[in-house]
């Protein structure tokens, strides 16, 4: 990987032992687009050059082993698909698209499933909602049904919160969340009534950025209106948005307005540049997180760029709004590819945004430069731990005594970042950051905002609330803005981002 910051080889080797080079325990299996014409398929000149099977014209899985007759274009990073018996032998079916008109063919992934049910036992929604059939059904079983005949997608796909915990749980690298996203996209496009309350509500929740941009023109008025009881009552009765939650306040000045008024970057350093993907929430609701990012990175000598950007697509994936997500992804990828061309790596302060750019974009869209964007994207603390000696910097920090109850978001776990905040602040005198366990917070972005899901959301979050209250600190900490909402909602605690503690410790 080229990152532009390898000062003397790989800094992760000598400065931060134990921190994965890419911050991931394991590269998730990514199944690429099914190219109709073999000539369209990009060929890696290094891995293919010496391959006798490829030279003979046979399709090869990326792990370097024969895919056993699988259609060309299927890729299985880092492993060979299990065949699961004769009836699941890829040689026994025709090479046609499973989802009519779909760009992806995930049959190879469904054949890797050997029904161990690890994914089902890891699913927080299945644990509390008896009507939800779980990830095994939503993923490999639906894909198998699609192969036999043109089955409709089961409506329960919309009950999946897209927490993506099942991806981590699967020992066979079945691309579960990719299957769910594809199936949900097809269900919403072809089976969901476009005039139904559910569709309208989900479209509104997915396009938070659109409404936040309008509300931020007059934030005081917007905060007043959204705080009214009648607004919440109407929201629940007409749209099915729960009235149990407080709408988040809009900041008086967005992050981008602050950045413009500040005059942009105060450090120029063409050799160490980062492009900040702030996402919607840091821009419209918590600009203090974005400001902390800029100040911390500038204190290490980085030049910060703030490229044009739209929503990462996270709430759109969760609601099957793939056309909306693709539109936003096109802008983001074009803009971020240009930043990479200027020598920058991409830094996100929200772990769902970084996961979206790293995993969901290349899994779901075929856009020019998308793999470069995925390869160059990092979460903010992760990147500093790879490239800087954070332990030494924090060892000299003078911070007032404080204690935090830390929750690792599910999407941070997917990137191998579950322990990063605990480890980073471990040696800081007078600071305690206590892990409140590995449960899901329950809100999963828009899931906990749906009236019919609110009780499930709180039931899933109960363990986290209990552990937060048992922890020493009465301030929460997490990298995900909607987990922060849920932590605050369930305990009444103020919640901060690790970047804010870094700013307090390292920036004068
Ligand atoms: S993404 Fe989360 S909610 Fe959806 S099936 Fe997987 S574990 Fe369950
Ligand atoms: S964890 Fe993986 S292999 Fe096991 S049932 Fe789920 S999808 Fe299949």
TrEMBL record:
GO terms for biological process: anaerobic respiration. One of its GO terms (molecular function) is oxidoreductase activity. This is Anaerobic glycerol-3-phosphate dehydrogenase subunit C. GO terms for cellular component: glycerol-3-phosphate dehydrogenase (FAD) complex; membrane. Residues 1-88 are annotated as: Disordered. Residues 1-27 have a biased composition (Basic and acidic residues). PANTHER family: ANAEROBIC GLYCEROL-3-PHOSPHATE DEHYDROGENASE SUBUNIT C (PTHR32479:SF19), GLYCOLATE OXIDASE IRON-SULFUR SUBUNIT (PTHR32479). It comes from the Archaea. Residues 149-182 form the 4Fe-4S ferredoxin-type domain. Keywords: 4Fe-4S, Iron, Iron-sulfur, Metal-binding, Repeat.
């Amino acid at each position: 990987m080229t990152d532009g910051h390898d000062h003397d080889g790989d800094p992760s080797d000598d400065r931060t032992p134990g921190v994965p080079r890419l911050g991931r325990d394991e590269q998730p299996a990514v199944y690429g687009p099914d190219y109709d014409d073999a000539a369209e398929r990009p060929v890696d000149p290094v891995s293919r050059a010496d391959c006798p099977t490829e030279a003979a014209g046979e399709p090869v899985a990326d792990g370097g082993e024969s895919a056993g007759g699988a259609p060309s274009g299927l890729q299985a990073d880092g492993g060979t698909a299990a065949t699961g018996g004769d009836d699941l032998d890829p040689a026994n079916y025709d090479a046609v698209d499973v989802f009519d008109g779909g760009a992806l063919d995930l049959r190879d992934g469904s054949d890797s499933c050997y029904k161990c049910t690890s994914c089902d036992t890891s699913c927080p929604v299945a644990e509390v909602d008896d009507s939800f059939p779980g990830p095994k059904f939503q993923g490999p079983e639906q894909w198998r049904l699609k192969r036999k005949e043109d089955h409709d997608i089961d409506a329960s796909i919309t009950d999946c919160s897209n927490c993506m915990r099942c991806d981590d749980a699967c020992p066979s690298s079945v691309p579960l969340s990719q299957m769910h996203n594809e199936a949900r996209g097809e269900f919403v496009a072809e089976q969901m009534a476009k005039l139904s309350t559910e569709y309208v509500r989900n479209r509104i929740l997915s396009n938070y950025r659109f409404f936040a941009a309008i509300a931020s023109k007059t934030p005081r008025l917007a905060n007043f209106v959204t705080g009214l009881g009648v607004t919440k009552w109407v929201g629940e009765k007409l749209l099915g948005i729960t009235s149990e939650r407080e709408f988040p306040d809009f900041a008086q000045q967005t992050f981008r307005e602050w950045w413009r008024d500040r005059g942009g970057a105060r450090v120029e350093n063409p050799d160490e540049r980062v492009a900040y993907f702030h996402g919607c929430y840091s821009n419209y609701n918590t600009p203090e997180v974005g400001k902390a990012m800029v100040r911390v990175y500038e204190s290490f000598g980085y030049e910060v760029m703030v490229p044009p950007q739209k929503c990462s697509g996270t709430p759109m994936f969760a609601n099957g709004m793939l056309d909306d997500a693709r539109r936003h992804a096109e802008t983001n990828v074009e803009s971020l590819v240009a930043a990479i061309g200027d020598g920058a790596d991409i830094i996100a302060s929200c772990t769902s945004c970084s996961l979206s750019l790293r995993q969901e974009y290349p899994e779901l869209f075929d856009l020019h430069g998308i793999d470069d964007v995925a390869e160059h994207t990092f979460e903010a603390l992760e990147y500093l731990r790879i490239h800087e000696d954070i332990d030494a910097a924090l060892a000299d920090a003078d911070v007032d005594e404080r204690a935090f109850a830390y929750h690792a978001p599910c999407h941070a776990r997917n990137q191998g970042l579950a322990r990063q905040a605990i480890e980073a602040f471990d040696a800081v005198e007078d600071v305690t950051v206590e892990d409140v366990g590995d449960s899901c917070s329950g809100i999963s972005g828009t899931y906990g905002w749906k009236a019919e899901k609110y009780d499930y959301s709180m039931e899933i979050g109960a363990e986290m609330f209990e552990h937060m209250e048992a922890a020493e600190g009465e301030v929460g900490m997490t990298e995900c803005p909607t987990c922060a909402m849920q932590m605050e909602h369930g305990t009444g605690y103020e919640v901060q981002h690790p970047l804010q503690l870094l700013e307090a410790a390292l920036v004068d």
